[in-house]
Amino acid sequence: MKNVTDSFVSLGHWPSAGSFGFNTDILATNLINLSVVLGVLVFFGKGVLSDLLDNRKQRILNTIRNSEELREGAIEQLEKARTRLRKVEMEADQFRVNGYSEIEGERLNFLNSTSKTLKQLENYKNETINFEQQRAINQVRQRVFQQALQGALGTLSSCLNNELHLRTIRANIGILGAITD
């Protein structure tokens, strides 16, 4: 190790012109080294760098082209979707209008049907009331007639004797017989 450091130390001094050695001045050597490296890179790496840039440019252009195609496809799909949406909205509006019309028609039919049913029920109620009134009147008439008949029979029985009673019965039977013939 000592030999290596000695050689750098001995080479660290600038000998007289015309000899070759290491320059230990870091600032001066970095500039020279950088310019040499850059020169070599530019000279030899120009083709590689331009190929890399051309490949990158082609990939970017292809990506842009693909993006444009996808954008155009998306715009077409969006327009188709908007057209379908308008069509579906019009159909929905039509169904809504038809639905409201049908509902209104069904409501009117229901109201008419209910009204007819109520009128029929009212008629049945009135007929039933009339029938029951007529029946009650007939029952009252029958009772009044029976009571009047019983009263008349009682009066006749007390007033008539047997002979008069038999003559009245025969006369009534004769009247009834004449009516039925």
From TrEMBL:
Protein's cellular compartments: Membrane; Plastid, Chloroplast thylakoid membrane
Pfam families: ATP-synt_B
GO cellular component: chloroplast thylakoid membrane; proton-transporting ATP synthase complex
CDD domains reported for this sequence: ATP-synt_Fo_b
Chief place where the protein resides: membrane
Membrane-crossing segments per the record: 26-49
Domain of life from the UniProt record: Eukaryota
Alphabetically ordered keywords of this record: ATP synthesis, CF(0), Chloroplast, Coiled coil, Hydrogen ion transport, Ion transport, Membrane, Plastid, Thylakoid, Transmembrane, Transmembrane helix, Transport
Coiled-coil spans in chain: 64-98
Keyword presence, Phosphoprotein: no
GO molecular function, one term: proton-transporting ATP synthase activity, rotational mechanism
Membrane topology: Single-pass membrane protein
InterPro entries: ATP_synth_b/b'su_bac/chlpt
Keyword Ion transport belongs to the record: yes
Subunit record text: F-type ATPases have 2 components, F(1) - the catalytic core - and F(0) - the membrane proton channel. F(1) has five subunits: alpha(3), beta(3), gamma(1), delta(1), epsilon(1). F(0) has four main subunits: a(1), b(1), b'(1) and c(10-14). The alpha and beta chains form an alternating ring which encloses part of the gamma chain. F(1) is attached to F(0) by a central stalk formed by the gamma and epsilon chains, while a peripheral stalk is formed by the delta, b and b' chains.
Family classification: Belongs to the ATPase B chain family.
Miscellaneous information on this protein: In plastids the F-type ATPase is also known as CF(1)CF(0).
Main function: Component of the F(0) channel, it forms part of the peripheral stalk, linking F(1) to F(0). F(1)F(0) ATP synthase produces ATP from ADP in the presence of a proton or sodium gradient. F-type ATPases consist of two structural domains, F(1) containing the extramembraneous catalytic core and F(0) containing the membrane proton channel, linked together by a central stalk and a peripheral stalk. During catalysis, ATP synthesis in the catalytic domain of F(1) is coupled via a rotary mechanism of the central stalk subunits to proton translocation.
HAMAP family in the cross-refs: ATP_synth_b_bprime
Protein name: ATP synthase subunit b, chloroplastic
The organism of origin for this protein: Torilis scabra
Recorded name of the encoding gene: atpF
